Amino acid sequence: MRAQPINRIVFITRVFWASPNTILGLIIGGVGMCFGGRARICGRAIEFYDGGTKWFVQRLPHGQFTLALTLGHTILGQTDASLDISRKHETVHILQYERWGPFLLPAYFLSSLYMWLIGRRFYRDNPFEREAYDADGGEHDL
């Protein structure tokens, strides 16, 4: 019977630990909504899509190929369909944010830099992406 309050405390702690990145996602998604974007809550994430959010995602490096981007407990997607397609993959990133908290973005970028410096693919060979693709059943060798 006591497991429920403990689980709630653990969840709140994870949300708080990921919150610096979530705040960044809320700002980007909120601005996106000012330019025709939409939002919805799905699972443990707030998803933003269309309008200014789509514009933002498309302007990232390789953004035309990016379906969605996760920041903490927010997912920034191009369209509602792109969110549906990428949800399992992006949910893995949410769990990574819950583990790494404010250190995830620096660790992610350093991992990408390291992969690039040793002649590997900076995105597909990044351990954070490999974990997400493995959980999603996707291919890393594309």
From TrEMBL:
The keyword Membrane applies. The keyword Membrane applies. The chain crosses the membrane at residues 100-118. Keywords: Membrane, Transmembrane, Transmembrane helix. This is Signal peptide prediction. It comes from Gimesia aquarii.
